[in-house]
Amino acid sequence: MTRDPDRLVWKDVLAHMRKAYPTVCRQWFDEIELVGIDGGSVVLRAHSAVHRDYLRRHCLEQFNDAVRTVTGRLLAVRFVGPDEATGIESPPAPEFRDGLTTPAADQANPEDQLAGSPSDELAADAMAQPSSMAQQVEPRSAPPHPPAWAASPRPAHYSSEAEPLGPGSLVINPDYDFENFIVGPSNRIAHAAGIAVSSNPGRAYNPLFIHGAVGLGKTHLLQAICLNIRKNFPAAAIHYISCEVFVTDFVDRVRAGAMAEFRHRFRSVDALVIDDIHFLTKREQTQEEFFHTFNTLYGAHKQIVLASDRPPDEIPELQDRLISRFKWGLVAPIEAPNFETRIAILKSKAAIRGLDLPDDVAIHIASRLTANIRELEGAITKLQLRAMVDSKSIDLEMAQEAIGASPAAAQADLTVQAIIDVVVGFYRVQLHDLKSKKRQRSIALPRQVCMYLARRNTRKSLQEIGSHFGDRDHTTVMHAIRTVETRRERDRDFGHSIGTLEQLLAAARR
Ligand code: ADP
Ligand code: MG
Fold first, then answer.
1. Position 294 in a domain
2. Which of 19, 23, 240, 481 is disulfide-compatible with 273, CB 3.0–4.6 A?
3. Among residues 411, 433, 448, which one ends one of the domains?
4. Ligand 1 center from residue 194 Cα (angstroms)
């Protein structure tokens, strides 16, 4: 095959992106197609309008830089969607296209992957819920909804590919789909409900109200719901906004005397998805307006999905009638993920970035960062940058340096021996037994607790920790940490004991 200069340029551009902007790059960048170079523009085709909007919003500068660096010319990048005309008259020669990437039209829609096994499992999960949810979630083989839903023509202000979710909607992150949403005990109900409403909008739970602390996946879930509704009902008009937009838009429209347009925009959609609805607090007039919007949509069986940092009745200064409406459907909490879920999330986030994250590194991060998932992602970004700067692959040592300072470890250096002393006293075991090869439970458990606490409270490596306990190897220590972490989450009494031990250690530091 002939060497095609454009093709080589494109390969170099992607290579430059991965090297210079590793944290921005995603695996799906491989699916971007080079349409051609037109005057001063490099035209790149994304495989969906959602991907295109995301690229425009979040990656334009980086691509511009990559293209300029690689070509040495002052070119600008232009992203287009799958069906968008480009103005480039002659398409690249067929052998060029073959060699480059599959043309967008022949590619499987990545969103179709959502219909695969995870969704099936999740629908089954939803059905397994003991609550009333079970009666309402239909098997996926059944027609997902009465044909009337979203069958009416889209409102005039919606055009299909131009704005996938309607004007004013927030930009969707293509990573935030159901496939990339890891399910665990902390979010199972919210997730199952999300699958249900996007398969059967307006009928399964209306409204769906998701609440949880910051960084636990509310926005991710809302976006997954939007993507799934769009996949199941391509004609549906979805409006996805933050509550802040609703509030400021409302205020602007009132001032401009353009309330009719505002009302039409919000009341003519098939699905209204609003993030951070607690922002309605204290705004009497906006609450009033939202109340009527809610009633109109609800009465027309249109789907409403809301997310908030707390349950409806804890949102301060929210009108009672709104509180009660927010509880008409399903109120689904999202809690902090447990250890196993944190590990799975880390693995998934790394895979999306095409990163290899060794098990011991994932365990290290998951045992140190426990409160919020954004922190886990931040840790991956940190390591990715460190790996780039050091030209090394990510390993435990790097992770210990980058994330080593857990709040506890940062305070003061505890020695493993100090930890052993506290544990020996607490469990009333013999020091020499802890250091022996004995495996009976009365010894094994305190030994595992020592390893776990040493890991959380010192900067010692797994191997160093193992050396204090009869020269056990790092896999034994890793197993001990997992065991304690999991049990701590499941067994309240045990969790209590570990809490006490941590307090004793804190006291030992002073
Ligand atoms: P919130 O809106 O609750 O503050 P986000 O939805 O912004 O939280 O989530 C913060 C980060 O954590 C995002 O990168 C999101 O993808 C990730 N995340 C949260 N929950 C999950 C999950 N269950 N699986 C995978 N990633 C998750
Ligand atoms: Mg959010």
1. yes
2. 240
3. 411
4. 14
Residue type, 75: L
Identify the nearest ligand to the CA of 275 by its number: 2
Longest dimension (CA), the chain: 82
> Which structural domain, as residue segments, surrounds residue 442?
416-509
Query: Of the bound ligands, which one is closest to the alpha carbon of residue 373?
Result: 1
- Do 288 and 382 belong together in one domain? no
Distance between CA atoms of residues 14 and 479, nearest Å: 39
In a domain, 298, yes or no: yes
Of 252-261, 332-341, 385-394, 404-413, which gets the smallest average pLDDT?
404-413
pTM of the model: 0.72
Distance 280 CA to ligand 1 centre (A): 22
Does 174 lie in the same domain as 91? no
What CA–CA distance (Å, rounded) separates 510 from 41? 63
Confidence of residue 207 (pLDDT cuts 50, 70, 90): very high
Q: What is the pLDDT of residue 448?
A: 95
Separation of CA 26 and ligand 2 centre (Å):
21
- pLDDT (mean) for 463-487: 91
**Burial level of 391, CB count in 10 A (0-12/13-18/19+)?**
exposed
Separation of 308 CA from ligand 2 center, angstroms? 8
* Domain CATH for 435: 1.10.1750.10
Q: Which residues line ligand 1 (CB under 6 A)?
A: 176, 180-182, 187, 212, 214-220, 345, 348, 373-374, 377
Rounded-to-10 torsion of CA 309, 311, 313, 316: 0
For residues 399 and 492, membership in a common domain is answered with: no
Ligand of minimum distance to the alpha carbon of 337:
1
Q: Are residues 311 and 382 in the same domain?
A: no
Q: Is residue 267 part of a domain?
A: yes
